[in-house]
Amino acid sequence: MAKPRRDLPQQRRFMVGAYEIVAQPIAGSAQMLRYTVFLGRKRIGAMASMPTESDCRFLEKPPVVPPVKPFHLFYRPGRPKKGTQAASAAGGAERGLGATLDELSGALPLPARSTTPD
After folding, report:
1. CA torsion, ordered 71, 77, 79, 84, to nearest 10 deg
2. Are 37 and 19 in contact (CB under 8 A)?
3. 24: part of which helix (H) or strand (E)?
4. Which residues, at least 6 apart from 33, have a Cβ–Cβ distance to it below 8 Å?
5. Containing H/E element for 13?
6. Closest C-alpha among 95, 92, 90, 70 to residue 80
7. Beta strands of 27-67 (E only): which ranges?
8. pTM
9. Most confident of the ranges 52-61, 65-74, 79-88
10. Quick one: 35 exposed, middle or buried, by C-beta within 10 A (0-12, 13-18, 19+)?
């Protein structure tokens, strides 16, 4: 015996203000719809959720976005002052590569390490 087949959502057309909305099933989905927005005969966008009139206006005329500023053009740290050492020469040569355990503890007593394997 064959199971009764569920009805899949069909294409629907409706108006939201001056905008025509066409709802079509999304391929591979049982219930989701793609809402395509038209103004006159021109397609202005598509959404996966039911659009409101404000969403349609946003698709028609999106807000102005300022141009992206590249990081290297506005981050200019400047020259080091006279008589200062380079950062690599100041810290790395004297102490090695890292801080000692005493420097990290901040005057807090640390428990002794056990040498027995767990």
Report:
1. -130
2. yes
3. strand 19-25
4. 9, 23, 24, 25, 26, 48
5. strand 12-16
6. 90
7. 33-39, 42-47
8. 0.50
9. 52-61
10. buried
